[in-house]
């Protein structure tokens, strides 16, 4: 069987794909403009509250926030673009003409599904290369209250680690594994839950099963005296991954970076179920653009003159929004450990794929 038999004629396929893509990205642009304006109303005051900030910082915030909004609302735009496209085709009796020419319901939807796949690929690449970096930068910028950001050299910063009753804060961490180096170290030594002393140092490195720090100074809380300790050993039993992987934010990491972090956490024997769910969702999330034409197809079939076209469009929107609710719920359950990672990411997609097929077969005639 020729693969091109799955399509309507090339002219019709291009016509439908163009309608779908134009409406999808027009809706996305409108949503971004409205939502960014509302978001800026709440954040502009915080940005300008930092001395010296002005229009340049506002534009910088827009450049970091817009990719997040695009990523979050692209699937909604695909759903609405599908419904508008199919409603117009139905209203103009173009769907009836295609079915009268011998095309099945699935053949009518093929141009939209393939266009949705193209959108999914673009969405994955955009999320992986742009959104993750914007999310990481914006999170760091908010931590300094929209002040100047330090130069990002890929190092970890402001990490806290617990060593029994003691707490260790590190300003900056470089390297991985046994080559990790610590800079700006503050160790809070406690006895029975009470602060006993504070040890500070400019630099530390891995030594044996602990960490050796140089030029250490110890502040004794009881006497209020500072002692020069020189080079001392602290944090026996604290592993390097506890510093480098103290906090893994899936939204701020690319697919490859997150997978690498999960592998390191597994090697260290630490739980990774929630992160694995987020890793799978980086694939299933963009693929929702392929599912939307199937869920919105209820608007394409049935006689427009029956007066139920609006009802069918509402049904399509309801199916799409139910999918997003189920997707967020499953991901939350995965983060809590109630669902296995693969199920949390893919169950809503597979469930609504079957629902969409059932509704399509039921409403086709």
TrEMBL record:
The keyword Cell membrane applies. GO terms for biological process: lipopolysaccharide transport; transmembrane transport. It is found in: Cell membrane. The chain crosses the membrane at residues 20-38, 69-87, 108-126, 309-326, 338-361. It holds the Pfam family LptF_LptG. Keywords: Cell membrane, Membrane, Transmembrane, Transmembrane helix. InterPro entries: LptG, LptG/LptF_permease. GO terms for cellular component: ATP-binding cassette (ABC) transporter complex. It is a multi-pass membrane protein. This is Permease. It comes from Sphingomonas hengshuiensis. The lineage of its organism: Bacteria, Pseudomonadati, Pseudomonadota, Alphaproteobacteria, Sphingomonadales.
